[in-house]
Each structure stands twice: as structure tokens, then as C-alpha cells.
Amino acid sequence: MIELNIEKTIHTLQGKEILVANTEIPDNKITAIYGESGTGKTTLLRIIAGLSTPEKGNIKVKNKTWFCSEQKINIKAQQRRVGFVFQDYALFPNMTVKQNISFALKDRNNTLLLEKLLQETGLTNLSHQYPAYISGGQKQRVALARALALEPEVLLMDEPLSALDIETRIKLRQLILELHNKYAMTTILVSHDIPEIFSLADNVQKIKDNEIQEYGAPKDAFDKAILKQQFSALFE
After folding, report:
1. pTM (2 decimals)?
2. How many Å apart are CA 22 and CA 27, to the nearest integer?
3. How far from chain centre, in Å, is Cα 154?
4. What SS3 class is residue 206?
């Protein structure tokens, strides 16, 4: 379980605000973080990853303290077992697909895991290609495989499918579910796409009024009128 009790200053359209996250995220489930643009969703992922530091509070993962402002504990990002799939992929352009993934391996000689990830993400035949010569969906597969190469306890995904066409999204949703279940990770997904949340997430937490609010299952997190509008739009 991830225990969050933090406060962080964020910059919004209304000016400076305090993001408050006091919540628990269950192990081995996919939790979606939903909210309007600029409410701190990405900031929250960066805080968990150790890429951004709260002003106060604490973070515990499986009862191990990763951050505590009072005790001045702040585990470095490299020491947190976190895989991060960024919205813009963040691949190294001068590295091949295979090199991008192997860069994240804890043991650079672990060729078995490397080949396994290439196969599981359907990238074996593209392993010697550079990012500039593959599609957006393929880039996202590389980003996902690279995150898994870290053998993470926690997988963070920041709107991973937002730039992709619907057909590619559906295929990658299935891949994400398969890999999540296979590697038994705690996964946190930032998304503004309600159908995507329904297809992937076990539970939903919303950021509203600069604070995390827990809502449970996706069907309980959204107004019925919004759901009717969202899902009927898929068939228009």
C-alpha cells in the first residue's frame, strides 16, 4: 500500500494553490487519478517518483518511508523502485529501441529480461530501430517496456495513451492490463479519458478543489449523465 499525506504548492490558472493528498493507494491494483488540467495530477506522480518534493508530509510504500518532512527523509528517485511512463514517451533519440529499454535494466547483463520485454511488448522486430522511425504506439510500447525493465514496485503512467488513435489505444489498454497482472504491480494512471479509466482502473481518486478525493470503483466516481454522454459518444 502507498500511504500519502503531503502538501505541495502548485501553479494554477488561479495562481498558487496548495495540493493536498491524504489517501491510500492499494497494492497490486490500477488506481486512476482524475481531474481537470492544472490540478496537480502529474505533480502527484512526480512526487511519488521522487522527481518533485512536497513542502510537508510523508510518503510510505509498503511501510517503508520514502519521504518525511519532519524526519528529513527523502529517498532519492534512483532508489525508489518506480517505473514512469511519461506522456511524451521521453525516449533517448540517439538510442535504438533495444538500447532505450536496456538502459533501465538494474543489471545491464540481464539479457533474458530484455528479450522477454521486447517479446511481450511486440517490439522484437523493431529492436534496432530508432525512435524517429517508429509510430507513436510503438514508442509507447518502448516507454512501457523501459519502465518495466526497472522491475518496479510502483508503475506510474501519465496519460500514456492520450496522443494515440482509438484503435492503437484499445490494443495498448489490453497490453497494459496483461503486463500489470503479470508483474503484479501497484499502478497509478493519470487520465482524463473516462472510457479509458473504465477499461483499466480498479478504483478512481479525483483531484477536486486541490485535494484528493477517493471514490472507489469507476462506476461510482462519475455522474450518470456524464457516463451516458461519454459512452454514447463512442457509438456516434
Report:
1. 0.89
2. 17
3. 9
4. strand
